[in-house]
Amino acid sequence: MALALAASILFAVANLFPILTLSLQGKHAEATLLGAVLELQKQGMGMMAGLVLFTTIVVPAMELSGLLYVLLPLRLGKLLPGQTAVFRLIHSLRPWGMIEVLMLGILVSLVKLAHMANVHPGWSLWLFGAFIFVMAATAASLDSEEIWTRLGRHYPSALQPNSAARYLTCHVCGLLSYELTNKAVQHCPRCGSHLHIRKPNSIGRCWSLLIAAFILYIPANVLPVMSTSSIVGAQVDTIMSGVVYLWVSGSWPLALLVFFASVMVPLLKLMALTLLLVTVQKRSRWRPLDRARLYRLTEMVGRWSMVDIFVVTMLVALVDVRPLAAVQAGPGAIAFGAVVVLTMVAAMSFDPRLIWDSLQDNVHTR
């Protein structure tokens, strides 16, 4: 609770100050996180602005307020209405909080701007850095099992099995229950989540999201993600041209990092999910443990592809010193953001338990 309170203070104060400040031939500009979102909205990039707002402001704020709503009463020995639903929501939102990815995007932005202007980190940059470490400490110290146990005191400890009951594991709180054959829809007795032998229509939903991501991957890499106008001319950048610029300017570690996160990770994620879906549908017994590890890796790294979206966001907000220079987001950024979201949701839709079904004749899916 103490760490969650500290993180809340850091997050609130960090949103009040500029992240970066820029000076160019006597003109000055500064970028706050909310200001960057509003600038995207002004440029007609409402979908991109909503995505940045959701992943960097809304989700962290909801996660922190939810943690305090759950932990503070429990620390005082009390239960409040809706705490179980709130803690369940925190579990669902956690993959969408991307302050760490934002910090990487800010670092890339600093390198890109170093040649054209004087750029200085603001107070907000250091506060967000401290926020990341405090949130990591909060997650490390939080015992979810203990929280679920305390919140679930008014629930029965377990469901009683019948003669041929199968086990159901809650994907939110991890409680093991027994299947009730007389119920079409069954809920976890501790956290209230829906329980399924397998995620309903997992393969169909995953294929639909994956095909959409494959289609959008092409314009995401071909169309410009941003355009820069200045007194010396105009320049249009795609994702790959940005990688080339970082490499040519001598920042090859960042170039490799951005290339891997923005080009290779989405492509490898698409290929990995395709492999998983095909092998599951063919009921393949090929290396199930390795495929399960591949799924976990795919689900874990997908969010880091958002780095280019945050680079564009920072540059749009900061480089607005007309008539000297200005940056505008391009249509490729919208397509790329859609690819990231679609692949993340596709990975969440896939049920990794399907990998093992071909090895167990007594398990059926539905």
UniProtKB/TrEMBL annotation:
Annotated Pfam families: PqiA
Topological relation to the membrane, as annotated: Multi-pass membrane protein
Record keywords, A-Z: Cell inner membrane, Cell membrane, Membrane, Transmembrane, Transmembrane helix
InterPro entries the record matches: PqiA-like, PqiA-like_proteobact, PqiA-PqiB_transport
Protein's cellular compartments: Cell inner membrane
Membrane spanning residue stretches: 47-72, 93-111, 123-142, 207-232, 252-280, 301-319, 325-350
Similarity field: Belongs to the PqiA family.
Protein's UniProt name: Paraquat-inducible protein A
Lineage of the species this protein comes from: Bacteria, Pseudomonadati, Pseudomonadota, Gammaproteobacteria, Methylococcales
